[in-house]
Amino acid sequence: METILEFLVAAFLVTAGIFGIVGSYGLIKLNDQMSRLHAPTKATTLGVGGVLLASMLHAAAFEKYFSYHELMITLFLFLTAPITANFIAKVHIHRQETRDTMPEAGGDDHWATHDTPEDEERRSASQTPPAED
Amino acid sequence: MIEAAATFAFACFALAMLMNLWKVVTAPDVADRILALDTMFINAIALMVLYGMALGTEIFFEAAMIIAMLGFVSTVAYARFILRGNIIE
Amino acid sequence: MKLIWRLFPHPLLTLLLTLTWLLMVNRWSLNSLVFGFMLGVIIPFVTQPFWPNRPNLRRPLKIAEYILVVLLDIVQANIIVARIVLFKPNADRRPNWITIPLELKTPEAITALAGTITMTPGTLSADVSDEGHALLVHCLDAPNPDAVRDEIKQRYERRLMEIFE
Question: pTM for this one?
């Protein structure tokens, strides 16, 4: 039993290390800016997740107490990783792309990052103001 | 066995942080620099938790939590500053 | 009944805050449960003006299923992305933008979909269109963009439709 648990903790740690380093390696290796965003956001969530799981398991198996606050960090990272990725993607669109270099925005005119105050005025002028309730 | 695995993980995350530092210095554009800093924060959390585990204390958990929160807020603040020229409007 | 709604404007938030407090304390005791519950009652009550409407969540079983599907996909996504990063030369990779027309209407549902897309294989949501009718997604390696779009619509958007609308 002891050996199996030890093996599990070790396996979690090794996978976490590998994913962590792959994420940072991708940051250097990939050649265009949007692709570079993919590697860290994905690989590091599992990297840190593995370390946290290993830590929980280690505490439960060898130090004889249950420690579940690692779940907080894992949940926090899983919730915030998409948001930071989205913001960095928006920075890229804002600095490197124009309305013409972007793909068609479905049925609408353009993407939200390229919105200007004039667009907003035009939109609010064409719509009837929402009813007060 | 756990000690060997922990050493391996330490080495991986330390190397990852060095790579991020390299990217922060040589990045061609601001977006890359923000991304590298954000990845550095995440690797720092992993190192912190690993260190706490190696020493068998819980004290580093709070530090890791605060780094996670600061990392998120500062990344969003940087990105927002570049997008709008202002953080709180 | 009305009084209960007034005292607990956001029951889900109350539950979440209580759970968060218990996780922070990291030791189970009745004491911390009571204190966490107190925080869970007071914080939603005081911050009520910031949360005008309540997300309309139905079918808890569907939510559990969705979370499980996404968690499995995250693990798979990590392996796929790691393989692309390590073994695929940059010249062979086909990064691509794709546009996903949205059927979801509520902001909560669109946020959930965007978050899911970012965490799953080789895709990353970047922007939403001007009036919220389409989502811009970047693919790390997509020789066939239409297939990726159909899979996202089939796998995630359909499930979110059932949960939120």
Answer: 0.86
